[in-house]
Write a structure and sequence with these properties.
The complex is a heterodimer of chains A (about 90) and B (about 90).
Chain A: H1 2-14, H2 17-23, E1 28-33, E2 38-46, E3 52-61, E4 64-74, E5 79-84
Antiparallel strand pairs in A: 1-2, 1-5, 2-3, 3-4
Chain B: H1 13-19, E1 24-29, E2 33-42, E3 48-57, E4 69-78, E5 83-88
Antiparallel strand pairs in B: 1-2, 1-5, 2-3, 3-4
């Protein structure tokens, strides 16, 4: 009984979102905002509000690459999702 | 969430903003607006005070190539909830 509970805990910690996020730091990600604009860049840091800093960022508007930025701070409330890309950076 | 930091990169997002105090930043705002200015102060809501600020107001939902209306201001307070992104200008 206690074993299965431990298994569940183990399983849930595997899926813990903040653990996932801290594991993918340094990797390429796209962040989609509620306004539809996407930002593609290297994930530098993220906090509990989903404030995000990306490095070497490309702005993607309607699928077209727009401006590029060095570092970018994205305010958490604008984020819809963050997608981990298996790209080397 | 403490992010392991190998080569001196910011460990939390607001570190990037802190490094920009007294530097020029570009702030993208809701309502197809942007503001450039020197960052005098900020807080955790992204409320910001910018000096020598220039506001660019675009006609479209997205700024593509249209030339924006420009408004200058010596010192301006930006309420955090309208902030979308903050970008350091070198």
């Amino acid at each position: 009984m206690s074993e299965s509970a431990a298994d569940v805990k183990k399983e849930s910690s595997k899926l813990d979102p903040s653990k996932f996020l801290s594991e993918i730091i340094g990797n390429a990600v796209t962040v989609k905002l509620h306004n539809g604009v996407e930002y593609l860049g290297k994930l530098q840091s993220i906090d509990g509000y989903m404030n995000i800093v990306l490095d070497e960022t490309k702005e993607v508007i309607n699928g077209n690459i727009g401006r590029t930025y060095g570092d970018v701070f994205l305010r958490g409330n604008n984020g819809k999702y963050l997608q981990y890309l298996k790209l080397p950076f | 969430m403490s992010n392991t930091d190998v080569d001196g990169n910011p460990q939390e997002p607001f570190d990037l903003v802190r490094y920009q105090l007294d530097e020029l930043v570009l702030v993208k705002l809701r309502g197809a607006r942007e503001m450039k200015g020197r960052l005098q102060g900020y807080d955790s809501h992204c409320n910001m005070v910018l000096s020598d600020a220039v506001e660019y107001i675009y006609d479209l939902g997205e700024e593509v190539n249209s030339n924006p209306t420009v408004k200058k201001s010596e010192m301006v307070f930006v309420r955090g909830d309208s902030v979308i992104l903050i970008n350091p200008i070198n």
